[in-house]
Amino acid sequence: MRSLVVYESSFGNTQRIANVVADGLAADGEVTLVSVDDELPPLAEFDLLVVGAPTHVHGLSSRLSRKGALDQQGRKGDGGIGVRGWLEALPLLGRPAVAVFDTRANKPELLVGSAAHGMARRLRRRGYRLAAEPESFFVAGTPGPLEDGELARAGEWAKTLASEVMSPAA
Ligand SMILES: Cc1cc2nc3c(=O)[nH]c(=O)nc-3n(C[C@H](O)[C@H](O)[C@H](O)COP(=O)(O)O)c2cc1C
To answer: What is the residue with the minimal CA distance to atom 27 of ligand 1?
Structure first.
């Protein structure tokens, strides 16, 4: 199985989850891990695409929210394309299978939103099959850190993804 893991991360928490997901998937094949700002290999080379992003203002980040996250850290830059822009540029392929996760506060989704649900909606609209329900991993505050146990949970999630892609449920 060939997997591509793409992440957006302002404070590093989503990147940490993406690292663990990539390590978990590596048990079942080749994995390429890239930031959404990196040059991406052609999608058609992969069996599974995993996309991770932080939840900003109840959904996917915007240019303004990414800039806000950088400002909070005293960092310069415009915050890049973000997963929102990246998804808009995705071909209407339907392949590879996809899975999405976000990082967010550990509160009801109705109150804090979820970038993963926004990604899932956009991907389905573009014809992609979701190999799993959107998943969230929790941070203790805006800069993090991740809550205890979330890295381990991400590793387990990666294993379930691999088995779902290699033998999809009917
Ligand atoms: C501008 C901004 C808006 C945010 N809005 C939300 C939100 O609506 N819901 C939520 O759960 N977390 C929100 N957060 C917290 C982020 O989810 C948290 O910073 C992120 O998960 C950390 O991921 P990262 O380290 O990969 O950037 C917000 C953070 C920023 C910077």
So the answer is: 10
